[in-house]
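Customer ticket, subject: "Can you confirm the structure for Methyltransferase?"

Message body: Hello, I'm evaluating your service for our small team and ran a test protein. I'd like someone to confirm that this is what the system normally returns, since I don't have a reference to compare against.
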Amino acid sequence: MATNHKLILGNCMSMEELPNGSVHLMVTSPPYFNAPFDYKGLFKDYGQYLGVLRKFAQETHRVLQDGRIAVLNIDDMLIDGEKFPIVADATKIFQEAGFRYRDRIIWKKPDGYLRISRRSGVILQNPYPMYFYPDNLLESIIIFQKGKFDYHSISKEVRAKSKVDTKEIQTNKWYMTLWAMNNVMPGSPLEKDIAAFPEELPYRAIKLFSYKDEVVLDPFAGSGTTMKKARELGRNSVGFEIKKSLLPVIKKKLGFGDGQDDGQDSLLSDKNDTFELITRKQEKYGPIR
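Agent reply: Thanks for trying us out. I re-ran your input and got the following:
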């Protein structure tokens, strides 16, 4: 069956284009709070950042079907020497939005990803108590659920074609709360100046928490990684993104057209999957205030 992939150039604090209960899975990684890369200067302070998370969580709860899953890749952030407890705050925000806290998985990056930095090297320069500051090789994948899932609501046919490979689960240790995954390497052509998560993350989430032909949502689409994996796995996708400049990257990553914005829907010649673009004319693409 052909799948449809819809990109909305607009702010996900309002997902007005999506009806209530129209989405089966949400997988995303929100912008890091005031990181020098990603969306620099987007948030004027931490309170505003949490306000964005709160509105996005409420909208996610609205558009998700009952029983379905929201997967959030997020982590605490160090800004000018101050550590912000983003994981704890985001967990509380999603609970307040009506979600049940289901699980937390730790994403472990390769051991060679970070070398001794100025932060962790302080203890080597000053080998005394109170000089210890560790570098972070971990990120959190927080899993929430909207109520309880009705397993009988899925037909035998859909269950059969969505079956997860148990060998893959065992070989790659998906059954653990520690997932070792390679991060996107600097210089990757489709992730330049974008803090993209690895394709393996949405790949696992989509296979574990959605069925074929269902709708996968990424409210912070970025370079389109979640949408790409949704298409490859036979799911439909919806993405929201405020950076219009990322449109060619998203289209290219998804495999639609030549990656150029021709103002028209694109249709692959070898498959009937479609790409739909919605641009909010009234949307402002500057900092969120």
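A couple of notes from the result: Residues 4-101+144-175+187-279 form a domain with the Rossmann fold fold (CATH 3.40.50.150). The chain has one domain: 4-101+144-175+187-279. Feel free to reply with more questions.
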